[in-house]
Amino acid sequence: xxxxxxNKNSRKRVSKWxxxxxxxxxxxxxxxxxxxxxxxxxxxxKEKQETEELKGSIKTVKKNGQEELRSVDFEKLREINPDxxxxxxxxxxxxxxxxxxxTDNDYYLSHTVAKESNYAGAIFLDANxxxxxxxxxxxxxxxxxxxxxxxxxxxxxxxxxxxxxxxxVYLFTPDKQYRCPIYSMYSxxxxxxxxxxxxxNSATQGAYLEMVKGLSLFDYGVExxxxxxxxxxxxxxxxxxxxxxxxxxxxxxxxxxxxxDER
Length: 263
Prior knowledge:
The protein has 263 residues and is an alpha+beta fold. It is built from four helices and ten strands, in the order αββαββββαββαββ. Helices cover 30% and strands 25% of the residues. Strand 3 and strand 4 (96-100) form a beta hairpin.
């Protein structure tokens, strides 16, 4: 009987230790998850705070019910980061950001305009592109985030009613200002022919324009010639509900604008 009692007590002690270990593991998992969640919320807060501060460098006006970009203080922006080369805005979306250009296409995937480490990154021009947007096709990249910042709102152009009502991308540089008619928008694979970064001459531009117009979800009714330059906005597509190799591309004609409403 004594042996049986000792065995029973021993099993109880082992059970208590197992329970304590399991509780400790659960507590560690909870603490780690809480830390990760807190880090995400803090990163989102810092990103929003920085974006609002940077927007103090721009002026917009309301025209025909839509916001238009009218001026950008590039001196102020370049005091924060000399890599700032432009400001991009699409009315009725959260897309209103400084555009930077780094020495590679990796740094600004995980750093903000203020060069703070942040998973949302920044909006940036391809590192190999001309900073003055003189290439035939200038690629501008941005993340698609779960909290809806950067280029996430490009997916709004999947809706025809929204696309019909929003026909321009505004792009201002230190020297020029552009109101760019949207030419094409669609999803494609990351390695498709749409990513022809070497497309820098008018001999190939005509065929490229014809190709991307044929891929577009909707016909924007915009005419283009082989001499027209493009800006191409690129972000990840989650239309299948998961991260994959799909991308949203929005092409717009780079068209200089005086700031006077000519519509």
